[in-house]
Amino acid sequence: MVAEDGRDRPVRTCVGCRSRAVQSDLVRLVAEGTAITPDTRGRCPGRGAYLHHDRRCFELAERRRVWSRAFRARNEETPTGWDVSRVAALFDDIPSDRTRRDPDRVGMSGPTSRL
Ligand SMILES: [Zn+2]
């Protein structure tokens, strides 16, 4: 609500790398049951966690199992497993991943394919 004039921008902590960033640079995540869901409009109710739009931060958060801590307030019982597939999908189309496998490009990448 305060972001419009750029003066009073809220700062949040990324659950992955733990560094602070302006909220608009982060993706807000909310828990729907045990499914962690990117709240792209920033309007879902409930407790949110913030993550850089960066696969490394997501992997860090995964490794540290931050989800239970980030979302624990809602339910008494902490789910043992979180479904992070929707969050992972955020990073699926980022082409900077060095281990990206792309079989479609094999054979059609160069001018040498004319016979
Ligand atoms: Zn981060």
From TrEMBL:
Which is a Pfam family this sequence falls into?
YlxR
Stretches of Basic and acidic residues bias are at: 95-105
Q: Where is this region: Disordered?
A: 94-115
Every copy of the YlxR domain together lies at 12-74
Xref: InterPro entries: YlxR, YlxR-like_sf, YlxR_dom
- Which PANTHER family does the record associate with it? BLL0784 PROTEIN (PTHR34215), YLXR DOMAIN-CONTAINING PROTEIN (PTHR34215:SF1)
Q: What is this protein called?
A: DUF448 domain-containing protein
Q: Which organism is it from?
A: Nocardiopsis alba
Q: Upper taxonomic classification of the species? A: Bacteria, Bacillati, Actinomycetota, Actinomycetes, Streptosporangiales
